[in-house]
């Protein structure tokens, strides 16, 4: 994120190729100039929300990353991108949350969405933060529009982490009530969070992206919040609806990390509008490739 804001990263706005009214292919080329994490890659990722109706365990998001030699342009590897997409997206939310809640006490985390992103965010946030509700041990709330799915995730996570209690909520309103941090990671095309449900100073990571990137939160939330983004070029291309609404972006998370933009006041509601960046995939692909070489090729 820092490299993006220092302009040591090239990631032109991605191309979206729709295959029907709900599904599309994103082409995400990127170049990251960094001796440790740098790489030239292109992620091809399909988003097919209707896969849930086709097969029990068919992911709705499927990705592959082609990794190239930066000098010769020769293909070095094709790396399965599903795990990478999960982890790097949650990592971006963790960084945004760390910097946008630095002066706030965090008690309540609400996750809306119990799919792949909901799960990985639950794992990452329980690892990096210490959410602790009154009269309880560490507690993380999870809601899904299909409650059974949330119940299954909650039961899986509670078995995995005995010390942290994950709790299923049947109402999205009750789930976000008094929340200090909210994560939305669904395919909702209508708002699932309303401004009047939020308390002062809440931070929201808006991760979900169906055909638009900003349909999970009500317009009034965007208008009342300081809205941060991951990269300006992507935001200009993909968040035109928010711009038309009159939403001004406060800055990139990378600029916040490097001190180039001053953080919001503690009572201000903040939104990290996560688009997902190609160079996050570059860095992860490079890391996976280097580990592979070390482990299996001894180089
Ligand atoms: N910002 C980023 O970098 C990334 C964003 N995404 C986006 O995050 C979202 C979640 O992705 P995954 O967890 O991989 O998908 P998933 O299919 O595993 O999970 C989606 C969840 O949303 C729920 N859902 C579906 N339709 C809904 C609706 N109309 N209203 C409320 N909930 C609904 C499903 O029940 C499911 O639990 C998607 O919108 C995806 O495009 C995914 C990867 C990266
Ligand atoms: O950056 C990504 O990867 C994605 N962004 C939005 C849609 C799903 C994948």
From TrEMBL:
<dbReference type="GO" id="GO:0042562">
    <property type="term" value="F:hormone binding"/>
</dbReference>
<comment type="subunit">
    <text>Homodimer. Binds the thyroid hormone triiodothyronine (T3); T3 binding inhibits enzymatic activity.</text>
</comment>
<protein>
    <recommendedName>
        <fullName>Ketimine reductase mu-crystallin</fullName>
        <ecNumber>1.5.1.1</ecNumber>
        <ecNumber>1.5.1.25</ecNumber>
    </recommendedName>
</protein>
<dbReference type="InterPro" id="IPR036291">
    <property type="entry name" value="NAD(P)-bd_dom_sf"/>
</dbReference>
<dbReference type="GO" id="GO:0005737">
    <property type="term" value="C:cytoplasm"/>
</dbReference>
<comment type="similarity">
    <text>Belongs to the ornithine cyclodeaminase/mu-crystallin family.</text>
</comment>
<dbReference type="GO" id="GO:0050241">
    <property type="term" value="F:pyrroline-2-carboxylate reductase activity"/>
</dbReference>
<dbReference type="GO" id="GO:0047127">
    <property type="term" value="F:thiomorpholine-carboxylate dehydrogenase activity"/>
</dbReference>
<dbReference type="Pfam" id="PF02423">
    <property type="entry name" value="OCD_Mu_crystall"/>
</dbReference>
<dbReference type="InterPro" id="IPR023401">
    <property type="entry name" value="ODC_N"/>
</dbReference>
<dbReference type="InterPro" id="IPR003462">
    <property type="entry name" value="ODC_Mu_crystall"/>
</dbReference>
């Amino acid at each position: 994120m820092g490299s993006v804001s220092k302009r040591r990263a090239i990631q032109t706005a991605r191309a979206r190729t729709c295959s029907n009214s709900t599904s599309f292919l994103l082409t995400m080329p990127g170049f990251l100039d960094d001796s440790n994490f740098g790489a030239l890659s292109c992620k091809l990722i399909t988003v097919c929300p209707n896969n849930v109706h086709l097969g029990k365990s068919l992911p709705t998001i499927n990705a592959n990353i082609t990794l190239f030699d930066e000098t010769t342009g020769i293909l070095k590897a094709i790396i399965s991108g599903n795990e990478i997409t999960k982890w790097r997206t949650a990592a971006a939310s963790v960084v945004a949350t760390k910097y946008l809640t630095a002066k706030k006490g965090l008690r309540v985390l609400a996750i809306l969405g119990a799919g792949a992103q909901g799960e990985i965010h639950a794992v990452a946030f329980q690892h990096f933060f210490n959410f602790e509700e009154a009269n309880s041990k560490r507690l993380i709330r999870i809601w899904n529009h299909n409650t059974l799915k949330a119940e299954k995730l909650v039961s899986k996570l509670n078995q995995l982490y005995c010390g942290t209690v994950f709790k299923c909520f049947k109402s999205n309103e009750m789930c976000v009530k008094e929340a200090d941090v909210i994560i939305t990671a669904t395919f909702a095309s209508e708002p699932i969070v309303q401004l009047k449900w939020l308390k002062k100073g809440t931070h929201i990571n808006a991760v979900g992206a169906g055909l638009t990137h900003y349909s999970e939160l009500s317009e009034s939330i965007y208008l009342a919040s300081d809205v941060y983004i991951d990269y300006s070029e992507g935001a200009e291309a993909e968040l035109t609806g928010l711009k038309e609404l009159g939403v001004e972006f406060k800055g990139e998370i990378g600029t916040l990390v490097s001190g180039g933009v001053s953080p919001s006041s503690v009572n201000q509601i903040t939104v990290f509008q996560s688009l997902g960046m190609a160079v996050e995939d570059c860095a992860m692909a490079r890391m996976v490739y280097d580990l592979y070489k070390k482990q299996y090729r001894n180089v």
